[in-house]
Amino acid sequence: MELSNFFICCILLASGVLVGAQDSQKRYNHSHKRYNNHMFVFGDSYADTGNLDKGIANSWREPYGTTFPRKPSGRFSDGRVLTDFVAKFLRIKSPIPYAQMKLGVKKLRHGMNFAFGGSGVFDTVGDFLPNMTTQIDFFEKLINESVYTALDLHSSVVLVALAGNDYGAFLANGGTNQGLQSFIPLVINQLSSNLKRIQKMGATKVIVTALEPLGCLPRTTESSSFKKCNATQNLDVNFHNLLLRRAVAKLNNETNSSTFFILDLYNSFTTVLEQKGSHKGKLKFETPLKPCCMGISSEFSCGSADENGTKLYTLCSDPKSAFFWDSSHPTQAGWKAVYKIVRSSLAQLF
Fold first, then answer.
1. Is 45 a catalytic residue?
2. Phi, psi of 20 (to 5 degrees)
3. Residue 15 catalytic?
4. Which of 22, 41, 301, 308 could in theory staple to 295 by disulfide, Cβ–Cβ 3.0 to 4.6 A?
5. Ramachandran bin of 248, using left for φ above 0, alpha for ψ from -120 to 50, beta for the remaining angles
6. How far is CA 24 from CA 61, 101, 141, 154, 293, in A?
């Protein structure tokens, strides 16, 4: 499992400066028109919709956001990401990023997104990025300040997304591939503790993502000219997902509930990549392992530019023809294809 380009180019530059709850923040008018009136999100770049600092994150630079909203918005894609598609399923607007909550009370009605690109269940770059525990702390603080209530959480859906940054940080700090077998259980145990905490706060419906096939991400498949996945890395991913299934089953059994639900990104990613598109053929990805946006060399990444603003990346002619946007993240079309697969399983929540 190699350290991702995203980890190198974005995490190491990411800012931990946040906009916290303001003392003058008014409590908005709580309404519960439907069960899934709110959505609260914790995790990393697969779920982040704009929490990283604008000054240093590539997600705020062109060509990110060219499909939606036609300008950089802090999403690590050309358009919508996982959070947006889950919100679509729930028939609500995508929740506002935590760092943007100062935009006004009306923006809080659909919930809040606490996910930060590059983060993990543990610290990935010291305490530079808020890990998942800290993200939950942010939410708990808002509940204590009555911005939200326990009832809001009870009548909401929680999305917890984990895409593997803990493993990138582990390797970057001297860990070995062999050592991953001992580190993976630690990640799952911490994730399980976070999930249990979210439930104790009042959550009754929690979606937690299975880890995607890391061995199929462009940062890895580049060594094979984007022709094949790394089977060894995917074995580590399968071990992670096995332990995750056991942990979620244990949590549900302990509480005699079906609070926690796994969203299978491994199977959905693999299916789309193998079929080179959606099963009904409306979305086609002829070279599914090759990203749409790449740095002109290994020194650069999607969104890189020199001091004169000269682009140091290449871009495909049509993002809809690519599953991956950059070295680690799907395009909007890629996420849409994944959503088409997981949509039916999401219905099991209700």
1. yes
2. -85, 180
3. no
4. 301
5. alpha
6. 32, 12, 14, 25, 42
Instruction: Kindly name the residue from 4, 44, 45, 264 that is annotated as catalytic.
Output: 45
Query: Per-residue confidence at 11, pLDDT binned at 50, 70, 90?
Result: very low
The pLDDT of residue 105 is above 80 = no
Q: Is 225 exposed, middle or buried (0-12, 13-18, 19+ CB in 10 A)?
A: exposed
Secondary structure class of 313 (helix, strand, coil): strand
The stretch 339-348 carries a mean pLDDT of 92
* DSSP state letter for 196: H
Q: What is the CA radius of gyration of the chain?
A: 19
The DSSP bridge partners found for residue 159 are: 41, 207
Count CA atoms closer than 13 A to 105's CA, side-chain side.
9
Q: Does residue 192 have an active-site annotation?
A: no
- List the structure tokens of 107: 């923006």
Backbone φ and ψ for 280, nearest 5 degrees, come out as -95, 0
Residues across the chain: 350
- Which member of 38, 110, 240, 329 is catalytic? 329
Predicted structure pTM score: 0.90
